[in-house]
Amino acid sequence: MGKVLPEYLSNWTTEKVKKEGVKIISEALVKSVNYKDDKLEIQLKDGRLVKTDHIVAAVGLEPNCDLAKSAGLEVDSDFGGFRVNAELQARSNIWVAGDAACFYDIRLGRRRVEHHDHAVVSGRLAGENMTGASKPYWHQSMFWWLWLKTMKPALTGHEADTLESEGKSELLIALVHQHKDGYGKGVIFYLRDKVVVGIILWNVFNRMPIARKIIKDGEEHADLNEVAKLFNIHED
């Protein structure tokens, strides 16, 4: 959560999840996993032992770029994956799409994205360009997730950790509104050089086209509270 949400919202969400009975162990590394007495025993590097019935590994991925050397393809040293241009082309007659493509986004710069929507969009674009379309990647893919049936964030563009790794981030939030049960609706803007490059919609539905247009326009905004009004976050 800390990779995509502002710290205050990440902390609030974490506490909300804990209250539902979820035990969260942060900043811990797994040393080993063993099966014993019908249980999985997870040995952490700090010495703690966690016993559980199941393990779901959601650890991201590292693209398999073994083909690069034999095919003469470039691997991006910063983001990993095969380095391609804005048309997803690695070399003449070779295109790469999905998680393995480190592509040049004509609006946001070089990126590598690991989400379903991106895989669909980039796969379609690579296929079109194979047949001579010569189209650049411009569509901002999105992803969303659901917590406790009451929190549904959706994100498009750059997220917080990407900007922090560049050392160029400015963060402005306009605003996730509080009510008696916590944070209700809102929109969060991530900025780079005073331009919106990432947007999170917090419990705001059917507004993703607006978010994509704001990022595509690439304009500086003097008052993001005015921009937030485009999302009608006060409507029921």
Automatic annotation (TrEMBL):
InterPro entries: AIF_C, FAD-oxidoreductase/Apoptosis, FAD/NAD-bd_sf, FAD/NAD-binding_dom, FAD/NAD-linked_Rdtase_dimer_sf. This is Apoptosis inducing factor mitochondria associated 1. Its main location: mitochondrion. Its cofactor is FAD. SUPFAM superfamilies: FAD/NAD(P)-binding domain, FAD/NAD-linked reductases, dimerisation (C-terminal) domain. SMART domains: AIF_C. Residues 4-122 form the FAD/NAD(P)-binding domain. It comes from the Eukaryota. It is found in: Mitochondrion. Residues 126-144, 169-217 form the Mitochondrial apoptosis-inducing factor C-terminal domain. GO terms for cellular component: mitochondrion. Belongs to the FAD-dependent oxidoreductase family. The keyword Cytoplasm does not apply. Coiled coil: none annotated. It holds the Pfam family AIF_C. The keyword Transit peptide applies. It catalyses: A + NADH + H(+) = AH2 + NAD(+). Keywords: Apoptosis, FAD, Flavoprotein, Mitochondrion, NAD, Oxidoreductase, Transit peptide.
